Amino acid sequence: MKHLIPLTTVVLAVFLVGGCTCNCKRSVPLPPDNEEVIIEEVIIYEYKTPEEISQSQEANQTAHPVIGEPAQQQPGDEKKQDFTPAFSLTPSTITPKGKAEESSKETVTEAADQNIPKSYIRDGRHFHPWVGRKFIKNGQELHPALWSNEKMKFGVHYGFVRAGTAHISTKGVVETDFGPAYVIETLANSAKVIDSVFKVRDINYSWIEVNGNSSFGYSQSLREGRYVRDEWITFDAKNKIFSGVMKKKGDPKFIKGELPGEVHDMLSSLYFVRAQDFSKGKDFIFDVANREKVYPLVVKFVKKETVKVPAGKFNCIVVEPQFRGEGIFIQQGKSLKVWITDDERRIPVKMETEVFIGNVSASLEEYSKN
Question: How many CB atoms are closer than 10 A to CB 190?
């Protein structure tokens, strides 16, 4: 796998405004805080056997394209994208909680527990199959962590201008293909004053191993201006492979490749940093993966200081990720600083960086741990 975008740029992209801070055009808006949070309609992926695929294709000639190994082309078919069904990615519908129709598909009924604000998903999105998995009862109590039952709200600013809001929450624990994992969700939206120019409505998920040592996978759904991208990746550290789906325009693209071993995604990396011991002022390094790339990231201890944000005044540890060359969002020589509370909670209370368009910061406005 090739080298990736520096993690800190990624953390800002996902954690602050959910995606990109470059000059690309992107689109969609976030509901007001008092809007009812329910599921309207979502597209998830469901695996099917070749036999089921054949039956489905006979019943519906317009079925979702099948992803797999290329079939033998016939003369004159050079321009057709035809595939032999190794497996199929077919859309399933999740209806609002309490209004779900009876269905034999377990993933559909279980997914009703995933309460995404409907204004985020009314345009239809593609999520990781794990988004539809039911939470383990008392999972956060069975697997206690720094981030158990946690909810955070951040205000995002470009200079002195309020650019948007990011909500980060621990949704629960689910059983993945590789064991139990915490589900971390981020919802990012641009402010009303920005919406007319550059609407942002992003949803990101990360499935973090319950001990916090690695990520099992992530799901990213971006609606930023005219830019639309949905992708999800599963990390199989044991077999050192990854696989997933990427969709921008048109049909989804199946992607796969090799891993060096355990890795973190853009979102889980923030949680991994929180769990580290900075008491001795020690730096550390770990691998971060995004899409088809891996990047070894060094996180440097800078200092301790007191910082005031809307949520209060905190004694913090300041850390600074180190880059190897120029990143996509951060210019060479520029840096990102992260303020983490110097206590057992290790709450991220502030992030600040310089990007091509100026200074970007995110400050903690609300925090709860139920």
Answer: 27
